[in-house]
Design brief:
The chain is of the alpha+beta class. 28% of the residues lie in helices and 40% in strands. Helix 1 crosses helix 2, helix 1 crosses helix 4 and helix 2 packs across helix 4. The chain has one domain: Alpha-D-Glucose-1,6-Bisphosphate, Chain A, domain 4 (2-Layer Sandwich). The termini are far apart. It is globular and about 40 Å long. A hairpin with a 7-residue loop joins strand 6 and strand 7.
């Protein structure tokens, strides 16, 4: 499942573990900036779903028990919507939230994200636990990894602009 295409951006690794996907990706930015870019709507709008449509909704209530909702319209006019609830927040190192693919009313997945910084480079590790291995199969078949890679490439660009001030 790993894309080894060469690029100026690092590539995420996506590893399957039964009912989980574990994603790791390095960003050349401090954890504080990565956390801000992952949680602030003005930044999320610039990277989420990059290249796959126009973001139409980006709502974030960044507190434990707060909800988030992102949606976009794809070039063919389809609305794609995801939402969830924040369960744990420990900026800038950890965030736990649920994620639902609203289009199909999926059961919530649990996303545990850690950000570990070393010498100005932050490793993101997201462990996503789904309701079943069959759901993991469906997520993989949906092309999720390609969308993830392009979104993280766009996140790199956002981080570069934030670091430049």
């Amino acid at each position: 499942m790993n894309d080894t295409t060469s690029s100026t951006h690092d590539r995420a690794t996506v590893d399957r573990r039964d009912d989980q996907l574990v994603i790791t990706r390095r960003f050349r930015a401090p954890a504080e900036l990565v956390f801000a870019a992952l949680t602030q709507p003005e930044h999320i709008r610039q990277w989420w779903g990059s290249g796959h449509g126009e973001v139409t909704t980006c709502e974030v209530d960044l507190r434990v028990g707060g909800r988030w909702h992102f949606a976009q319209v794809t070039p063919d006019g389809t609305t794609v919507s995801f939402s969830g609830e924040y369960r744990e927040l420990d900026p800038p190192g950890r965030m736990v939230h649920t994620e639902v693919f609203d289009n199909i009313g999926s059961l919530p997945a649990l996303v545990e994200t850690s950000l570990t910084e070393h010498e100005g480079v932050t490793e993101l590790r997201a462990s996503i636990t789904y309701d079943s291995p069959a759901t993991v199969d469906a997520v993989i078949a949906s092309g999720m990894e390609g969308g993830l890679q392009s979104s993280y490439d766009a996140l790199d660009d956002v981080l570069e602009r934030l670091a430049a001030g």
